[in-house]
Write a structure and sequence with these properties.
The complex is a heterodimer of chains A (428) and B (238). Chain A is mainly α. Chain A is built from 17 helices and nine strands. In chain A, the strands form four sheets. Chain A has a three-stranded mixed beta sheet with strand order 5-6-7. In chain A, helix 12 crosses helix 14. In chain B, the strands form two sheets. A six-stranded mixed beta sheet of chain B has the order 6-7-8-3-9-10, with helices on both faces. Chain B has a four-stranded antiparallel beta sheet with strand order 2-1-4-5. Chain B has a domain of 116 residues: 3-Layer(aba) Sandwich (Rossmann fold). Chain B starts with 5 loop residues before the first strand and ends with a helix. The chains are: A mainly alpha (428), B alpha/beta (238).
């Protein structure tokens, strides 16, 4: 920014690192430099300065490394997408180490809950729920290019299907998952029909309205949904074993009694975590496969050019509807887990427009259409605010500033979409 | 029973209150190159899109290989062996050249993909050079080649082109029209909508002239080229 083209490289590196350090200082000072103390606060200037200095050193080291030939090679390797605004298409040989990394992450994910406190367990579950929601909206917004501002509606439908289903028809946790998925998909289809001919702004407004309608119905239909008082869902169970201290449903036995261990309130959350983790992994696998299949290709083609799609013999009605339904289905599944994580209690205040905006932010920040990006963004955007609890008043402000800068610097998100290179199998 | 490949019979079409086509009849026989020329706003593109059902013909009928296709859905027309190179090319900019070609196989499945892709690369070597490049980064002429290649990937019997010369340098136009001649020689029937009357009429076996939504003239390419009315209106005639 301040460097001139003919500065010596060391000076350029120093200027650049100072700038980065300054930015880090600006970001860290309010977060770590001010500690609230009752109604006042104490300042701790040394912490942010330390942090900014570490950032400065790191950046300077990076810049110096970039001057040496081996450093450049290293950077080239890791920053393939740097400077490319467009879509990066993975080359066929990219996946060598992928399986090993995935396996390590998977095992780490499975082991993780046993080392977390109850509080962090709920945070982790919430983060995984947002991964699901992000993946669902990613289909609608990222792949098919249909701006949906009311995605929270399907989340609400999933949660309420579980809660009301168990209230009125004795629906259990396991049967609620497919049922909520089907019901949310159905609603997605119903929403899809009237908006088939809409694009961009108009579509956004209609979906926004749809999200609010669902919330208002849940809020005001006292006799059925319980209105603002909310609804209670069944306790999750595994083959008739419950995770409560004493069984709530006739014929069920508590988990700890069955295995003869002592009761721990964490067991239930570990269980929910493991189920949502496996479902999320399944969805990630499913959606990354989908991208190379005709259906995923059709969504992307639809986003790029609807007329071309139709003249190529693609039925835009089924393509759009399938995108809406797939997205809604995933949202619905997320809703069931949310109801379970909340201790079976849901009420309409959890499903405001802010949730829709947050999910959309996950998709946009993560990189529209990029599965990995969405997963990372979902984890960051749900875990980070929990880490910043002490700083709750300014959370949304920081969030907003972050969004603005992201859009300026990385308009395609953290991890821009890397579309798998699709070709007929085995031949490149 | 007519033996025309495509028969358009006395159709009307309109966008809301504005009537764009009046009583238009024309036909294309198998193996021909037929061109439709006309000024801006004459209804050329409308006629082409009416074959694909958007807008629909409000009167008359359109038959393809003897089958009435006046009212079938747009995406189904694409599966009948009719392929379209739309106005403004409309390639998929974020996909690579190769992927764009693959998208073209959707109506018939990817059974012949390898073979046809090689054919396209032979016909348009530029596309082979840029096969892994994003289509949005191609030049206008290359995009047009890609659009034609994509349309041909569905092995169409009838290829409709809407102003392939639009916005291209004269040399590229010549190259593209030459490749159309090759495509026709390999047995694909071509219906070409053009403003560039000179080039189009030289290429075509027959031509129609559309003026204000009505067919004003028709004849063989040579006839129209020397027709004083056509020369005056489209060829800067003397």
């Amino acid at each position: 920014m301040f460097s001139k083209p003919n500065d010596p490289p060391m000076l350029t590196a120093f200027k650049d690192s100072s700038l980065v350090g300054m930015i880090a200082l600006l970001i860290f000072s309010p977060i770590s430099g001010i500690i609230l103390n009752g109604y006042g606060f104490n300042t701790h200037p040394q912490t942010p300065i330390m942090l900014a200095f570490i950032v400065f050193i790191g950046r300077f080291a990076y810049q110096l490394a970039a001057l040496t030939p081996w450093g450049q090679r290293l950077i080239q390797k890791f920053m393939l997408s740097k400077g490319k605004r467009g879509v990066y298409v993975a080359s066929p040989g990219d996946q060598r180490y992928l399986w090993i990394i995935l396996a390590i992450l998977f095992i780490a994910g499975l082991v993780l809950p046993f080392y977390l406190s109850k509080y962090y367990l709920t945070v982790a579950i919430l983060a995984l729920i947002y991964v699901l929601l992000g993946l669902g909206l990613n289909i609608v917004v990222g792949l098919a290019g249909l701006l949906d501002l009311g995605f929270v509606a399907f989340y609400a439908v999933g949660a309420y299907t579980f809660a009301l289903g168990s209230q009125y028809w004795g629906l259990g946790f396991w049967s609620a998952i497919p049922l909520a998925a089907a019901f949310a998909a159905l609603l997605g289809g119903i929403l899809g029909f009237p908006v088939l001919r809409m694009h961009g702004d108009y579509l956004a407004i209609v979906t926004l309205g749809f999200g609010e309608i669902i919330r208002l119905v849940l809020n005001n239909w006292m006799s059925f949904t319980g209105g603002p008082n909310g609804a209670k869902a069944a306790e999750p169970s595994l083959f008739g074993l419950e995770f409560t201290r004493t069984a709530k449903t006739d014929g069920h036995i508590p988990f700890h009694e069955f295995f003869g261990t002592t009761y721990s309130p964490n067991t239930k959350f570990i269980f929910i975590y493991l189920v949502v983790f496996l479902v999320a992994c399944l969805m990630i696998f499913f959606f990354s496969r989908l991208r190379t299949m005709p259906m995923g290709r059709a969504w992307e083609a639809l986003r790029e050019d609807e007329i071309a799609c139709r003249s190529l013999g693609m039925n835009h009605v089924t393509i759009k509807l399938s995108a809406f339904m797939m997205g809604a289905m995933t949202g619905g599944i997320g809703g069931v887990f949310f109801a379970a994580q909340q201790g079976g209690f849901v009420n309409p205040t959890s499903f405001t427009f802010f949730e829709s905006a947050l999910i959309l932010a996950i998709v946009v920040l993560g990189g529209m259409g990029s599965v990995v990006g969405v997963v990372v963004a979902a984890l960051v955007l749900t875990i980070l605010p929990e880490m910043l609890r002490d700083f709750a008043d300014y959370r949304v402000l920081i969030f907003g500033i972050l969004m603005v800068f992201m859009m300026l610097w990385k308009p395609r998100g953290f991890l821009p979409i890397r579309r798998p290179y699709f070709t007929k199998e085995g031949q490149a | 029973m007519s033996d025309y490949m495509l028969e358009i019979h006395q159709i009307d079409a309109s966008y809301g209150p504005i009537q764009a086509l009046r009583n238009v009849s024309m036909n294309v026989s198998e193996g021909e190159i037929v061109t439709l020329i006309g000024a801006n706003g004459a209804g050329k593109s409308t006629l082409l899109m009416t074959i694909f059902g958007s807008p629909r013909a409000s009167k008359g009928y359109i038959k393809y290989q003897g089958r009435d296709i006046t009212n079938i859905a747009m995406h189904e027309v694409g599966r009948l062996g009719i392929a379209q190179v739309p106005e403004g090319r409309r390639i998929f900019p974020a996909m690579t050249v190769e992927e764009n070609l693959i998208m073209g196989t959707l109506p018939i499945g990817d059974e012949h993909m390898e073979e046809d892709r090689e054919k396209m690369f032979v016909m348009f070597p530029r596309l082979k050079e840029r096969r892994n490049q994003r289509a949005g980064t191609l030049s206008g002429g290359e995009q047009q080649m890609l659009a034609i290649g994509r349309a041909l990937m569905s092995r169409p019997k009838l290829l409709l082109l809407d102003e392939p010369s639009l916005g291209l340098a004269p040399l590229i136009v010549k190259q593209i029209l030459n490749s159309l001649r090759d495509i026709a020689a390999q047995g694909t029937t071509i219906f070409l909508v053009e403003q560039n009357a000179n080039h189009a009429l030289r290429l075509a076996d027959r031509g129609y002239v559309l003026v204000n939504g009505e067919i004003r003239l028709s004849g063989t390419g040579e006839e129209l080229l020397v027709n004083p009315e056509v020369r005056a209106a489209y060829l800067g005639g003397h």
